[in-house]
Design goal:
The complex is a heterodimer of chains A (210) and B (137). By secondary structure, chain A is of the alpha/beta class. Chain A is built from seven helices and six strands, in the order H-E-H-E-E-H-H-E-H-E-H-E-H. Chain A has a domain of 136 residues: 3-Layer(aba) Sandwich (Rossmann fold). Chain A starts with a helix and ends with a helix. Chain B has a single domain, classed as 2-Layer Sandwich (Methyltransferase, Cobalt-precorrin-4 Transmethylase, Domain 2), CATH 3.30.950. Chain B is built from three helices and eight strands, in the order E-E-E-H-E-H-E-H-E-E-E. In chain B, helix 1 packs across helix 2. Classes of the chains: A alpha/beta (210), B alpha+beta (137). At the A-B interface, helix 4 and helix 5 of A face helix 2, strand 5 and strand 7 of B.
Chain lengths: 210, 137
Amino acid sequence: MLDFVQKFITKVIGDLFMKKKHVKLGLYGPPNGGKTTLANRVCQDWLGQDMGTVSPIPHETREIQVKEQINIKSGKKELSFNLVDTPGIATKIDYEDFVKKGMKTKDAKKRAKEATKGVIDAIKWLDDMDVVLVVLDATKDPYTQVNITIIGNLVARDIPVLIVANKVDLRKADVKKIEAAFPQYDVLGVSAKFGKNIDKLYEALFVLAG
Amino acid sequence: MKKKTSKGSKMALTLQFVPYNEIEDLSSLGRIKKLLKMAKENKIVLLEGRLKKEEEAELIKTTMEEIDDEFKGIELGVIYPGKGDGDLMKKLKANLANVLLGDRVGLTIIGPASIVKEIKKDPDKIQLLMKTEPRRR
């Protein structure tokens, strides 16, 4: 009973004074969906700096990256969060795929080793997230088991999810296909590279983290 | 197991069926180890039913730990009724089956990435795209 009263008072006071919220916001998804491009867009918009490097070769992000204390504002609302950019989750990693992209065998093997560790870390960090954006490449088939497993695990942990259909600037992008694959979730089409619909994404974050 | 015949051009694949009762009493780790062991033996595993979502994530984690120059990982696909479009009666039946049978409903396919290139799926259809051997002249 005391706990309930305490929570109620905190909420009322928080609402009255537009309480500044602080959450851990994770970016999850398969490799090359554009998680780091989106992270860079957010960091550029609110901190004036990039978060990580991007590459057309999969598994460029092989370690968890955290940018702390990002404050976004919309009217009187303010949201403070730690942004967590995670390595792309995959069920297979073959160093020969990197060799085919022009890497030397030694470097490719090192990249593959680091990438496997990155996937493990990304899954371990799932428990620490308050809100997650699942970033999917809108030009690719969304109905993969990796996507379903990621979303299923977030739901199992009661973590609010928004599916971000990235790369809508590309002609092959099909947001409707992603909506059809995950009809029970909100899907927002964006172009992290060119900033399309990023304002809508910020608005959605207030709702998700609210 | 994928075997070359004496003529060298034909390949044989082993599809290993695993009834749900073979994993039912195992711990999550035990289930994962059993399924992954079969995949590492180059068998395509057909598991009756499905793993829990947390077990799927754990399967991916364990797969990553086992990847080396020989083992490249797995392809994973799960199909089960009740998630697709359909009339109300079909959905009710599917939901009832889910309630009664739990994780026994559906089919899980796990294939070694060295053999299975991709598993494409709709809610109730699954396609295995196999890796082809390079042609010899």
